[in-house]
Amino acid sequence: MDKKMKITLIAAGVSVLSVFLPWLEATVTSSSGGQSMSMSSGGFAGTEFDGAILGLIVAIAGGVMVYKQIKYAFAAGAINLIIGLGHALGIFGEIQGGSYKSAYVSANTSVSPKIGLIIFLICTIIFMVNTYNDFKPVIKSLKDAQAGAMPKE
After folding, report:
1. How many whole angstroms from its chain centre is CA 85?
2. Which of 7, 88, 135, 144 is spaced 20 to 30 Å from 100 by Cα?
3. Predicted model pTM
4. 3-149, what's its fold?
């Protein structure tokens, strides 16, 4: 087992573990009559989101593919990148803040990424960088097949 494979397997393993760390934190602040209050969720673990559970499964599958030297392991990294960015950017609907203001009351809500999601994204990028060279022949064969399937004029 070479150094690159070990780093890739470690990245997959840390991705799996990061799902159990806090991924998102919700904060609510309000003020009325000169009094203000702020509350925080303290963090929601990745296991509380369906996408993160899928990410856990895909990270395990990606690690197995790397260990068995299957050339499609890059696809597992790409799926997890979509999952991680979807949660971090609010594409899946978790990160939506808002505010309300009237003459007497104001309230704000916000949701922010936490350490588990950040670790998940970093490990996914490491995984993808290390598996990309194995995936290049697959891309080339798809391009060749597409070029062969195109009608010649």
Report:
1. 5
2. 88
3. 0.78
4. Butyryl-CoA Dehydrogenase, subunit A; domain 3 (1.20.140)
- Which residue shows structure tokens 């260990």? 67
Over the chain, what HEC string results?
CCHHHHHHHHHHHHHHHHCCCEEEEEEEEEEECCEEEEEECCCEEHHHCHHHHHHHHHHHHHHHHHHCCCCCHHHHHHHHHHHHHHHHCCCCCCCCCEEEECCCEEEEEEEEECHHHHHHHHHHHHHHHHHHHHHHHHHHHHHHHHHHHCCCC
Within 13 Å and on the Cβ side, how many CA atoms surround 10?
Answer: 8
Q: List beta partners, residue 32.
A: 35, 105
- Read off the pLDDT of residues 35-88 as tens digits, 9 standing for 90 and up: 888 888 777 888 888 888 999 999 999 999 999 988 889 999 999 999 999 888
Kindly give, in sequence order, each residue whose CB lies less than 8 Å from that of residue 98, ignoring residues fewer than 6 positions away: 108, 109
